[in-house]
Amino acid sequence: MLFQPPACYRPFLSGRYTVSAGLYRLGSQRIPWLEVPQVETHTFALDGDYPRFVASKVGAHTRAPYEYMGEAALTPDLREAALTFIARTLAAESGGVMTWDGRTFRNLLLGWAADLEPRWGSVERLERFPAPLASLVAEVLPVHALDFLGLNAPEDLALVARDARTARDWLAAIHVLSPQHWDPREKLGRDFVAVHAPVAGSGPLNATAPRLIDAVISRGPFVRFAWGLSMGDRLDHHPAAPPDADRAEATRFDPDRAFLRVERQTLTGFPDAQGALFTIRPYTYALREAVALPEQAHALAAALRSMTPEQVTYKGLARLLPELLAWLDEGSGKG
User: For residues 217 and 231, what is the distance between their CA atoms, to the nearest angstrom?
Assistant: First the structure.
């Protein structure tokens, strides 16, 4: 195995489904959703699922890269701060698999290296060499530095900017190759409230937008979690991607094909550049393993029952919920 097995997070153990900031401070606050609650310090999660993420990202990139990435009034200062942080942190957290010397980023697993210009976002030289996973990226041509770094990371990447004079915020850059039933292009250039308006139950969260953006830029880094259920473990659910069983009209609940999907999201601010980096790392766990214990099944059932009808629909669970709850009740001893 290239890295350790993926961590297992169970945010549903609270027994409530909420749409809130839910921020934990990286490096000081314990993450309660782990089997052994502990403090996390990492931004990028490089684990045994790494080849799967690269293959999925390359598939999306090959199909239609313009559907997954873009920029909107991204300042050179924020671009430079974010790209330098991404390159430096990926290298530091990779256990020597990746290196960054301020100019060249090298990945010894993917067998490629590139000279990057973080301020203007260019890829000035791309070198390829033999490596264990080189075949995954053999036909890929990154279009800019954020694209290249995003293809090296399991996480999806987004940059939030703020105008120092007006305090207006907007999504200034996006590189999201594993979206969960949303189109990254629809979010680009929009402020926090507009980005999250389609999320059922986001009203209270949106009401805190100015304070939340200020905290993210000035007082991070933070980590938060979001979760849902999918009938399949595919990573890329862009609305324009080829359809699969998840949320298909004919799909019904099947515990052997159901997965818990958890997103680990980090937020790192760059106060001098008036912006922040937002990373999104999906985890997919077979549902039978995620709720193997009766108390886990009970907590998930309680969390699902706490959803409003609008949230059930937004999460794509309307047709699945009755059979899903019956199965969970049986597993928790209530059935």
Answer: 36
**Residue 124 located in a structural domain:** yes
Measured distance between the N- and C-terminal CA atoms of the chain, rounded to whole angstroms? 39
Residue with tokens 């606050």: 29
* Residue range 175-214, pLDDT digits in tens: 999 999 999 999 999 988 888 888 877 787 778 788 889 9
| pTM for this model (two decimals) | 0.95
Cα 33 to Cα 330: distance, rounded to the nearest angstrom: 23
Count other Cβ atoms within 10 Å, centred on residue 125. Answer: 11
Residues 6+ positions from 219 with CB-CB distance below 8 Å: 269
Tell me if 157 sits within 8 A of 278, measured CB to CB: yes
Collapsed DSSP state (helix, strand, coil) of residue 24: strand
Does residue 13 belong to any structural domain of this protein? no
Q: How does DSSP classify residue 307?
A: S
Domain contains 321: no
pLDDT of residue 3: 79
Matching residue, tokens 């070198």: 127
Q: How many domains does the chain have?
A: 1
Give the structural domain span for 119: 18-225+262-287
The label of the residue with tokens 């290196």 reads 99
The long-range contacts involving 93-101, CB below 8 angstroms and separated by at least 24 positions, are: 93/42, 93/43, 93/44, 93/46, 94/44, 94/46, 95/3, 95/46, 97/2, 97/46, 98/152
Angle at 43 between CA 67 and CA 163, to 5 degrees: 65
Position 257 in a domain: no
